[in-house]
Amino acid sequence: MLKEGIALIQDSGPEGLTLRKLAERLGVSAMAPYRHYPNKESLLAAIAADGFQQLKTRLEAAEQSSSTASSPLLAEGIAYVQFALDCPAIFRLMFGATRPQGQYAELDAARTGAFDVLLRQIPGTATSNERAAKARGCWALVHGLALLLLDGLLQVPEGVAPAAWLTEVIGSTVTKKGGTTCAN
Fold it and tell me: Comparing 24-33, 106-115, 124-133, 169-178, which segment has the lowest mean pLDDT?
């Protein structure tokens, strides 16, 4: 059911998802989805939580695959923006203001899990508040870049590989010789 809900959102955005449409696509009674989700908002929260889990998986893969010449933080930033470009409707749902923290425990845990991957890259010499502030700054940078690209206010130049362009843009902003500026 969750998989089909994700497909519906990818096809027509969160506004296009109704439990009735979901039931039709699944070939079940109109009331069947209510056995799993009491309302549309709880289904959207579950889909957003799944999105954060997918994002966490991509961030961890980027962290593990970063070369010694590239910082894991840079690799995670590129993976974050690439996730937004690959899954725009899910990305917008994940960060929509209609599901604030504290409403859905599964969503809160998934959000925290994804953020914790980023937080691991911030040097441990700072206090926990300083580390969290630096992590939020790095997050804001890549989140803003992702939204600018999604909204068409920035474009990857024609003929340039997106990963190379993202490496240049994010790398020139956050890295310096010997470390990362947004994390140091």
Answer: 169-178
For residue 96, give both structure tokens: 């929509």
Residues 184/130, Cβ–Cβ less than 8 Å: no
**Can you give the length of the chain in residues?**
184
SS3 179: strand
Structure pTM?
A: 0.87
What's the Cα-to-Cα distance from 64 to each of 32, 73, 94, 122, 180, rounded to whole Å?
Answer: 41, 11, 24, 16, 17
CA torsion sign for 10, 139, 80, 125 is: negative
Chain-centroid distance of CA 30 in Å reads: 31
Tens digits of residue pLDDT in 134-174:
899 999 999 999 999 999 999 999 999 998 999 999 988 86
- DSSP per residue over 58-78, as a string? HHHHHHHH--TTS-HHHHHHH
Query: What are the tokens at 93?
Result: 């749902």
Cα(156)–Cα(183) distance, integer angstroms = 26
- What DSSP designation does 123 have? -
Q: Are 141 and 173 in contact (CB under 8 A)?
A: yes
Cα separation, 62 vs 52, in Å, equals 15
